[in-house]
Amino acid sequence: MKQNLTLLGLQWGDEGKAKLIDVLAEKADVVVRFQGGNNAGHTIVVGGEKTVLHLIPSGILHEKTENLIGNGVVFDMEVFLQEKQKLEAKGVDVSPNRLKVSEIVHLILPYHRQLDRARENLKGSIGTTGRGIGPTYGDKAMRLGVRIGELARPKDFEEKLKSLFEEKKKLLKDLGSVESLEFQAVFDQACQLFEKIREHLVDSARYLRSKTEAGKKILFEGAQGSLLDIDYGTYPFVTSSNTLAGFASCGSGLGPKEVGYILGLTKAYCTRVGSGPFPTECLEGTDERVGQWLAEKGNEFGSTTGRARRCGWLDLVALKRAKDLNALDGIALSKVDVLSGLPEVKLATAYQLEDGETQDFPNFGLEKVRPIYEKMEGWGPLDSVKSEKDLPQSLQKFIRKIEDYTQCPVVFISTGAEREQSLTRGLPL
Ligand code: IMP
Question: Which of 22, 33, 298, 417 is the most exposed place for a label (fewest CB within 10 A)?
Fold first, then answer.
């Protein structure tokens, strides 16, 4: 890799980041996760074998790459160890030499998972992944969190956990949770898990600084997508972290000028898991059939929870917003082959509001807008595409439309699940 690179999702997650990360991770010296937690699911196929990573950075599958779970991540010790064990069983080197964890990541403790589940049982839930992500980030912001490095002093940790515990128990009871929560069990388990992880801990900022000074190239691996960002996403139907490029710096310990080339990934259509507004969702008439087709052909089922994803047309209004928020250098376009075979494809180019039309993505009332579509001719199978000139004219037009609308070049196009089914145009690799 010629420079550092940050890869982000531009939609509501599930843009197919794993395939691209796999291509990029091979060229990077260090891969860093900087936000989210094990709500993510990055499915990587290596040597025909499928590996789903939720927490460990995708660089782990490339021998020469070091991997860091940065301070901006919320960290579930049990999940980390399970994932590590599965990788070990496949012969992957997961030693502390190449797998590092920031000593200041906030821990997802059992009561965070219980609180997440209890809130999800209430009316008007947002359909979280139930992994305890929101309650952990909430505690971090309220100064009630536990950072993993604190467990190196068990006496202090014990006292702190005790002081937190009563409130959590009361909260869970009030929320109607019937799950058991015992102080001693939580404390003992946390201490045991910690002993198995402590060798992986580093000061992430110092570690990345030394790599930078040694001229190493860093890949920042985003999770979820820009429309799930806690500030700029479709609040409150969002995740609890900042998913935008700006957070690659805060969540890792390098400076904002060091996040490098900013690459955003979008599917050629849209999907969303969980609740929340989705203007271009395929719901009625012929669109409903298109939605089902996309779900089946695109295998749109969550790799973390197995939930079916809602499907819809590409939304250029939302995409332009994501491009602006991230100050993207380039767009990567995935799953164009899923649209193959449709006589006509649609792209939303504006929203109809009660009092007129807009191309500005609104901060409020997204559930009330109606998409205004431009229709374009579809394309056939892409199996024989080897280079750009093999792309059907109609698909080239579709790509140009995205570039013109967003004012950003499309630098990577994925035409199928296999690694070779990719076209690269101008990525700084
Ligand atoms: P949480 O991140 O578990 O709190 O879930 C909040 C919202 O973000 C829900 O709508 C989830 O479905 C969505 N979400 C979280 N992680 C992902 C992801 O990796 N892909 C897609 N959606 C996600």
Answer: 417
Rounded-to-integer distance, Cα 288 and Cα 271, Å: 14
- Residue range 183-214, pLDDT digits in tens: 999 999 999 999 999 999 999 999 999 999 99
pLDDT in tens, 206-220: 999 999 999 999 999
Alpha carbons 6 and 221: distance in angstroms, whole number? 6
pTM of the model: 0.96
14 is known as an active-site residue: yes
- How far the first Cα of the chain sits from its last, in Å, is 4
Q: How far is the CA of 163 from the centre of ligand 1 (A)?
A: 30
Residue 42 falls in the annotated catalytic set: yes
Cβ 92 vs Cβ 123: under 8 Å: no
Ligand 1 interacting residues, C-beta cut-off 6 A: 12-14, 39-41, 126-129, 131, 133-134, 223-224, 228, 237, 239-240, 273-274
Question: For 247-287, how does the pLDDT look when each residue is reduced to its tens digit (9 = 90+)?
Answer: 999 999 999 999 999 999 999 999 999 899 999 999 988 89
CA 228 to ligand 1 centroid distance, Å: 7
Please tell me the distance between residue 229's alpha carbon and the centre of ligand 1 in angstroms: 10
